[in-house]
Every structure is written in structure tokens, then in C-alpha cells.
Amino acid sequence: xxxxxxxxxxxxxxxxHFRAPMHMIVMYEKGERRDGxxxxxxxxxxxxxxxxxxxxxxxxxLEFFDWHELRGSQMRLMYFYFEPDKLSCLSNPGLxxxxxxxxxxxxxxxxxxxxxxxxxxVDGPAADPLYFNTxxxxxxxxxxxxxxxxxxxxxxxxxxxxxxxQRLVTAYIREHVNERIPIRILAQLVRLSPHHFCRVFKQxxxxxxxxxxxxxxxxxxxxxxxxxxxxxxxxxxxxxxxxRNAFATxxxxxxxxxxxxxRRRLDSRMTEE
Length: 273
Fold this sequence. Notes:
The chain is of the alpha+beta class. The protein is 46% helix and 20% strand. It has 10 helices and 8 strands. The chain has helices at residues 84-90, 109-123, 129-147, 163-175, 183-189, 194-205, 209-227, 232-238, 244-255, 259-272; strands spanning 2-9, 14-18, 23-30, 33-40, 54-58, 64-70, 74-82, 103-106. The radius of gyration is 20 Å and the shape is globular. The two termini are 33 Å apart. Mean pLDDT is 84; it is low at 94-98.
């Protein structure tokens, strides 16, 4: 594996291009753009503004392109490169031959935690090659688990939700994805006060409960949009949004693209295939 720690700064337009016979993971440690776009071949483009703790995976041979006009003084990110054979040899034998799909601006606390450890090592005065290789191998293992939908192995955080509480709350949110669930209801499920629940939820899941709920609704919306049935108004209403505009605003904020454009680009890809 090779890794680069990069700091972007400046007021003008900053562009990045990549296409190589190697896999690449991009980790945005910190940064926000007032304008810009990120593209991975085979996926709809994203104009998401807040990039902190977002990840992108670009399989070997595919094109990656992004450009930024920064909001603030700088953006910090990491690029990790590794040979396709490395991912294949670390994959579960049952997954041998399975193709890896690109992922654009997604979140995964386990992958991000390991990527930040690697960044600390790379930015340090004297990197330990053995430790670097060990962390690199771990990062690839975690990418394989994420890509093929295998459960992540996460350390239990002191003071966070207990495993049974986390399972109960996340299952309830998935089952009621078409509703706006009040915080007090979720807190009651796990026998905590609303204030304490919000704090330990964010500690365990990496985001506040309302943001987690919105992300789940948007992910479900993507499935409905890909299915091709239902208007924007119908899909928004099915997911508990009060209006088409409310649905479009939440979808655009989470993905950087309007739901109608997301469906249009999916339809275009299917036509090309």
C-alpha cells in the first residue's frame, strides 16, 4: 500500500483526476466546499458540500474526478492506493471472484478510524513500516467487509449505548423508516432520558439520532428511486416527508444531488448497459 496525506488550500478551483490499475480509497478528514463536484465512473455525480469523515472507494481502472472551491481555509484528506491482488487475497474465500463496486462519499466509522490511524502514522516524524503495513492490511480487510455487507467489528465505547440498546433502536428506526420518530420515543425504548440518549447515541453511532433517521430514509429513497415506480411526491410521502420540496431538500443535503437527477442518471446508466 501507498498513502498520501494532502492539505488543499486556496480560493480558486482545485481539481483532482485519477485512473490507474490500482484501487484507491479517499478519506476526507476535514473540509467543506462552497461549490464543487465528485465523480466516480459508474455512479451519479455528487455535489455534497460537507465532506468531513466521508470516504470514496475507486476500483482499479475506473475514473475518479473531483473539483472544489473551498469554504474555509483548507481541506485535509488522505489517499490510499493498493494492488487489486491484495484485496482478492484478503477476501473471504466464499467471495472469490466477486467484483468490487465503487462507492461515493459514504460513511463508515470503522474504516474512518483505521484511516485516521494511518494518517497519524504518515504525518509523524518517523513512520514504522511494519505498523504501517499492519494498519494497511486492516484497512483492506475492513473495506472487504463493508463492500460485501459483512458486519464490522467495532470496539465497544465506554459510556455509549449497550449492544442490546443499539440493536433495538436501529431496528426500530429501520422498521419505522416512513415516520419521524420523536427522540423521547427512542429514549423510552432503551430506558434513558432524552438528553442522555442523544449523547450516547452519537457516541455509539457517530451522529445524532435525527441525522441517523434522515440517512436511513434517504437510503430507502434510493432503493425506491432505483425501482423506477412512483413520482417524487409519492416517494417522499411514503417516507414521511410533508412535501416534495421537503423530500428533495433532505435528499440533496445528504447526497449532493436532487432525487429527480439521481433517478435520471440511474436510468441513463441502465440504458447505456
